[in-house]
Write a structure and sequence with these properties.
This protein has about 140 residues and is mostly helical. It has helices at about 15-25, 35-40, 45-55, 65-80, 80-95, 100-120.
Length: about 140
């Protein structure tokens, strides 16, 4: 349950409305999700967050599906149920298969387990993994 009212379009400030217009234009959709509607109370944070998301998720070296899958993985690690659902839907819309989803979730689970084990055991980083030393094959 939201801790703030999710602002409908008719209650937006002019600054928030301009961001929503850009979201709609960029995504080529009339849909504005609840995250943006909650942020609309603070147009500066809304704009800053939208501009950052737009930049990070724009076409680049990683294909859009992979970016969405990475967003899901981080959201699982941070326990953000909203982001898990919204970015899983985004990854599926960009072509993620159920097999890819299952494999990604298995990797997230395995990484979480091994991260905790290595942290609990205090395992030192192998020199071969350090960027400032000559690389050896591993």
């Amino acid at each position: 349950m939201a801790t703030v009212k999710l602002l409908p379009d008719d209650e937006l400030s002019p600054d928030a409305r301009a961001v929503f217009d850009d979201i709609r234009k960029t995504r080529q959709s009339e849909f504005i999700n609840n995250f943006w509607r909650a942020l609309a109370h603070d147009p500066k944070t809304l704009r800053r967050t939208w501009e950052s998301i737009k930049e990070v998720m724009a076409p680049g070296a990683l294909e859009p599906k992979i970016k969405e899958m990475l967003y899901v993985a981080v959201s699982v690690a941070h326990g953000c149920n909203y982001c898990i659902h919204s970015h899983t839907a985004g990854a599926r819309a960009k072509g993620m298969t159920e097999a890819e989803y299952a494999e990604m979730i298995a990797i997230v689970g395995m990484a979480a387990e091994t991260n905790r084990l290595v942290t609990a055991l205090g395992v030192a980083i192998d020199d071969v993994y350090l960027v400032d030393l000559p690389k050896q094959q591993f």
